[in-house]
Structure formats: C-alpha cells, structure tokens
Amino acid sequence: xxxxxxxxxxxxxxxxxxxxxxxxxxxxxxxxxxxxxxxxxxxxxxxxxxxxxxxxxxxxxxxxxxxxxxxxxxxxxxxxxxxxxxxxxxxxxxxxxxxxxxxxxxxxxxxxxxxxxxxxxxxxxxxxxxxxxxxxxxxxxxxxxxxxxxxx
Length: 152
What we know:
Elements: H1 4-12, E1 17-21, H2 28-35, E2 43-50, E3 53-60, H3 67-74, E4 78-80, H4 83-86, E5 108-112, E6 120-124, E7 130-135, H5 136-143, E8 146-148
C-alpha cells in the first residue's frame, strides 16, 4: 500500500497516479529493474542539508549529486545528510524510501532540471516494495520544487 499520507494528499488534489508493486529492493537501479521501468524515469530522493536545514534533492536514479553544482545553484552550503539526521522525520516511511514530497514534511525540495523534461516520473512510495507514478506536471504543481542543476 502506498504511503497513506501521500495517497490521501493526491486523492484530495484529484491527481491521477499509478501504484506499481515490485520485489523488495534497496537501490534505485534494482527498483527500476524490478518495476520494469527505465532508470531515467525513476526519481530518487536524496536527503541533503542546505544551509544546515534538511531538504530533499530529487534526481534521476542513475545520477549522483554533484555538490559543487548544487552549492552553486543554492548559493549556500549543501551536504549529504546522514541517515540518523532524518530518520525521525519520516516515521511513516521505510528508511531510504521517502517520496519526494517535502511539502508534506515541511521541507524544501530541489529537483534536477533534467527531470523537468520527463512526462512522467516514478518514485518510492514510502516502502521498498512499491512505487508511484504520476505526471511531472502534477508533481511540480503540488510540490513546487526549486529546479536546479545538480548533476554533471
């Protein structure tokens, strides 16, 4: 079952989405393969600290954050957050399976500009056995992410 909080939010906003069950996986590439979708279509959520505040960086699954680019884009400090720093923020999610809806958790979301060209994105739905897919336009309208260049 997808994350209840997210599902209720999407239903309340009348957003069309698809839930995709898959075998239990722990890396974004394994998840894409198990769910039979392109790794480029899968958006992964990476927890970062921007100016000391927790934030989400959302990028295509095969990519890695270039922190030099991210720092330049946000104009301040940016670093990877440790698991212990954010685990309590997501009590309704399995560790590492947070959906990229920072607005539901009171945090900023930064999205890699390359994802803005995708018609649809897929992402973890709070567990390691389910994804959600929805249009990028709906994601952007609801989350209002800051679009930045963060991959080389």
